[in-house]
Design brief:
Elements lengths: L14 E2 L2 E2 L8 H16 L19 E3 L6 E3 L18 H12 L4 E3 L7 H12 L6 E6 L10 H13 L8 E4 L5 H13 L5 E6 L5 H10 L4 E5 L11 H8 L2 E5 L6 H5 L17 H10 L6 E2 L6 H8 L9 H12 L21 H12 L5
Parallel strand pairs: 5-6, 6-7, 7-8, 8-9, 9-10, 10-11
Antiparallel strand pairs: 1-2, 3-4
Length: about 375
């Protein structure tokens, strides 16, 4: 029988392929109260949320993680969209539709986007609509906004309405995050208000730069978010002692961006074979090696690798099947990577080495390069 991601919390351990799925701790009193308030707000705004899994359950062999505040069960591998879903206006790649289709068919239910990603919201929304899954996906989106003056929220609210329209959603977006902590002092209170009013389901904060992790952890501790999104990988582990620790202590779900270091991890192991011990955990590709390492951390809820290649989707989602590495094996995986010379050069590599995404963002970036003497 398939396990569904429902809104009823089950405090018992869940196993996948005979291995515990490293869930976060049970909800705290704060998160239970918050979940009840969100449900009440949803009823007042036109009906309680039944959750994305009520319409489409994940396969029974998929590793699921628990969202502390709601008890929802989410597949541990989601799909990011930065650069990979951006496209020239009106000309999205047919491959993107296949990426979304394969991710969904393989059991993926979480999709991450942002209005900052060029045309990615519209591309994802169009693909989802064509597949009939617009309101069945668990969508995590973002808000990046200031305003005409201090404490002006009008821009943010209009941007959120536009995001929902681009995503073809008739129901509220599942998670809205303050993108890179932009205008965070205003945006966090606004998102709490919108959650109370039933305009969004849950809220979060995000960043990808380790220099901001202490500040991000501070907002996890005092901002009462439901989610935090952070850069975390087998190469970039700084979040462990800051953001992940704070999230575990506060009962906050964790989304992971850049788990594959935007293809730089794959570049570092190009032409190399997997270590023999990887087979003990059903790992057959480097993608699964890197992603299983990430989602085996007990505080991590969902990792969000991005790709524009349909064949790579299946490699990524394979990481949410089979046993997860234990703490000793996680350390062994790190030691193995540290023996690879290119692993230590990842920080100096360009994002997506050898790849090009000529979308709205790249076009604008190139135009600025031509205009700016500083960039030259």
């Amino acid at each position: 029988m398939n396990r569904t991601m429902d809104s009823t919390y089950d405090s018992t351990d869940h196993t996948t392929a005979g291995h515990t799925t490293a869930d976060l701790p049970p909800p705290t009193r704060r998160t239970v109260v918050a979940a009840g308030a969100a449900t009440a707000a949803a009823v007042l705004s036109g009906g309680a949320f039944s959750g994305p899994a009520s319409a489409a359950s994940a396969p029974s062999d998929v590793i699921l993680k628990t969202v502390p505040g709601t008890g929802e069960r989410l597949p541990a591998i989601g799909l990011g969209s930065f650069m990979t879903f951006d496209a020239p206006v009106g000309r999205p790649s047919p491959a993107v539709l296949e990426v979304v289709r394969r991710h969904w068919s393989a059991g993926g239910r979480v999709f991450d986007c942002s209005p900052l990603y060029g045309s990615a919201e519209a591309v994802l929304g169009g693909a989802a609509a064509s597949l009939g899954i617009s309101d069945r996906m668990f969508v995590t989106d973002k808000v990046w906004s200031t305003g005409e003056y201090l404490w002006d929220t009008s821009h943010a609210e209009s941007n959120l309405r536009r995001s929902r329209k681009r995503l073809r959603r008739s129901r509220p977006i599942d998670v809205v995050q303050v993108h890179s902590l932009v205008n965070v002092d205003v945006m966090v209170p606004l998102l709490h208000a919108l959650k109370k009013e039933g305009m969004i389901r849950q809220l979060g904060v995000s960043h990808h730069d380790p220099a901001y992790f202490p500040l991000l952890a501070g907002w996890v501790e005092r901002g009462d978010p439901d989610f935090v999104q952070v850069h975390y990988s087998i190469h970039t582990r700084a979040a462990e002692d800051t953001v992940l620790r704070a999230a575990a202590d506060r009962g906050v779900a964790v989304l992971v961006n850049m788990p594959l270091e935007k293809a730089r991890l794959h570049k570092a192991v190009e032409g190399l074979r997997l270590p023999a011990f990887a087979a003990d955990f059903g790992i057959e590709t480097w993608s699964a090696f890197f992603l299983k390492w990430v989602i085996s951390h007990p505080a991590v809820t969902v990792a969000l690798p991005a790709t524009s290649r349909p064949e790579h989707v299946l490699e990524n989602v394979a990481a949410m099947r089979g046993p997860l590495p234990d703490p000793d094996t996680r350390e062994r995986m790190v030691r193995h990577m540290e023996m690879i010379p290119a692993f230590h050069r990842i920080g100096s590599m360009p994002w997506y080495p050898g790849k090009s995404y000529p979308g709205v963002v790249s076009t604008a970036q190139e135009e600025l390069r031509k205009r700016s003497p500083w960039w030259a």
